């Protein structure tokens, strides 16, 4: 097993701790970062819907999840894809939310997944990165719409 750290996250010790993964010889890992123009509490209200992670993870059919709070980090969520006929064998991800004075919230999702037979690590990471990026863009749209609706209600 090899530990994989993401250099762009190494300046934040909390993020680095959650986004350092043990990677086996037939696995790959990556991280995707999304800025969201909504308060962290609004983003968390979407992410914490464990009964319906499909609200923003459109490609997810079933998953196991856990969460906890950690210091300056509001929360993190860990997902594992279970069962099904798909290319995401042994998929495990960690999603963290960080306050940002510039955008509101920065969401980081990192993952480890088995490389399917006949695929390279690069092909697998490219494929999964697209899915994760789509999911995080969906999360951004939902959270930003929710934040805008909340602002409208408060100004009435």
UniProtKB/TrEMBL annotation:
One of its GO terms (biological process) is abscisic acid-activated signaling pathway. InterPro entries: Plant_def-hormone_signal, START-like_dom_sf. Transmembrane segments: none annotated. GO terms for molecular function: abscisic acid binding; protein phosphatase inhibitor activity; signaling receptor activity. GO terms for cellular component: cytoplasm; nucleus. PANTHER family: ABSCISIC ACID RECEPTOR PYL4, OS08G0374000 PROTEIN-RELATED. This is Uncharacterized protein. It comes from Brassica carinata (Ethiopian mustard).
């Amino acid at each position: 097993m090899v530990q994989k750290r993401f250099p762009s996250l190494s300046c934040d010790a909390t993020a680095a701790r959650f986004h350092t993964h043990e990677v086996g010889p037939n696995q790959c890992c990556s991280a995707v970062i999304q800025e969201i123009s909504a308060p962290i509490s609004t983003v968390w209200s979407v992410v914490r819907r464990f009964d319906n992670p499909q609200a923003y993870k459109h490609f997810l059919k079933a998953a196991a999840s856990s969460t906890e709070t950690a210091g300056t980090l509001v929360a993190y969520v860990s997902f594992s894809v279970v069962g099904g006929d798909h290319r995401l064998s042994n998929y495990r991800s960690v999603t963290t939310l960080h306050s940002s004075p510039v955008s509101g919230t920065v969401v980081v999702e990192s993952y480890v997944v088995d490389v399917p037979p006949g695929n390279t690590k690069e092909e697998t990471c490219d494929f999964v990165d697209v899915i994760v990026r789509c999911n995080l863009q969906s999360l951004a749209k939902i959270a930003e719409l929710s934040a805008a609706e909340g602002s409208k209600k408060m100004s009435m």
